[in-house]
Amino acid sequence: MTTAPPLDETAPLVGASRSSPLRRVIDPRRWSLGARLGVTLVLATLVPMALVSVMATRTGQEAVVASELGAAEGAATVGAAAVDEYLNGVAARADQLGTNPTVVEFLADGGSAPSLGGAPDVVATLVADSKGTIVAGPTDQLGTSVTTEPWFVQAVAGKPAIGELTATGGRSFVTVAAPARRPGAAVVGVAALQVSGDDLLFALNQAPLGPGGQAILVDDAGTVITARDGRLQGRTLDELGMTTVATDISSEPKGSVARTALSGRGDQVAAWATTEGAATAIVTQPRRAFMAPIDRLVNTITIALLVVGILAVIGALLVASRLSRPIGALTRAARAVEDGAPPDDDELQRIGRSHDDIGRLARVFARMAEQVAVRERRLKEQVRSLKVEVDQERRRKEVEEVTDSDFFRDLEGRAAEMRRRAKGNG
């Protein structure tokens, strides 16, 4: 059975170039322990933080969008309520006119024409008989038939009515009508007040608008009755590119969309609320202004993530350096022992003062290094003793080999013969 050769950590990996610093940098297997610990800590910190930040950003964006759309719907509701309040006030004045005894007697008995005063916001005051002929009002409208006007049809049936926007002579107005009758009696005609579209716009502008915002009032056919931008007046929502809003208004009396077009003004956020008179107040805001709070939120979270990420990287590097420093010292000590040199006792003692695993490892390694040194000294002494014994034995064997040889015996015999002769001659 063969054993695998020991792994040489300094040998290049298969396919790696010994002279490629980039390969050594990007290959995690060649990283130092401190680098591995640092990267691990950074990833363990930043990856969950990034996921949490992305989720928080999305949640925050959804919350801000919902909040801003709610604010836009609130503005549209305020505008619709202001228009309702104004038109209801005009309807109340029309009802007072319709129950005025002078007007009723004029219509019922054919008396003298009543004196019709007017308020500053009233373009014209009209009185029509039950057949739909204007019998009192501006001279240019006397004798005009309004039989087909929706406001007349509804009012002569006994219900207050608010008509559509009408443009005449460069001026726009809305007709608000009420039945003319004595209390509990039959309707004998219709009293109507025509109010300027500018006064409707004044009421509509009570809606709080942001920078670049628009307030628009449309009828149930989707035609602009009045708007802050007078160029929009008389145009339909389809012509303005707000087809989505026109479709949604037909099914929802109140709502909002986060993106729609507005001719000449780019992408808009729109919200609407329907008035009691079936007109709809629409509030628009440039999408870039709408997205500003969301962009600020994203920027804030991004900056916070970068700051925390930088702090996390610095902390991870410090922790990794602190953890890898004693391990590096132990590695140097192990290499010293491997090379037969004594390790740095001061460094080992400093590491060994800690009570963690590395401190215990340093103390164990110091004892082991000391034992290795003692055993090495003993081994060297044993080797020296053994060398002396071996040398003595070798010399003895060499002497024995010399004395046991025939040549040595012959010399020894000749020497003995010479000693005998010397003694005989003496």
The succession of helices and strands, N to C, reads HHHEEHEEEHEEHEEEHHHH
Summing up helix and strand content along with how strands pair, one would put the structural category as: alpha+beta
In total, how many beta strands? 10
Low-confidence stretches: 1-19
Strand order of the largest sheet: 2-1-5-4-3
CATH architecture label name of the domain at 85-197: 2-Layer Sandwich
- Name of the CATH homologous superfamily of the domain at 85-197: PAS domain
Percent strand equals: 15-25%
Which CATH class of the domain at 85-197 is shown?
A: Alpha Beta
Reported for the largest beta sheet, the result is: 5 strands, antiparallel
Mean pLDDT: 78
Q: Using only CA atoms, what is the Rg?
A: 54 Å
Descriptive overview:
This protein is of the alpha+beta class and 426 residues long. Among the domains are: 67-83 and 202-289, 2-Layer Sandwich (Beta-Lactamase), CATH 3.30.450.20; 85-197, Beta-Lactamase, CATH 3.30.450; 345-400. It contains ten helices and ten strands. The strands form two sheets. Strands 2-1-5-4-3 form a five-stranded antiparallel beta sheet. Helix 8 packs antiparallel against helix 9. The protein is rod-shaped. The model is unreliable at 1-19 (pLDDT under 50).
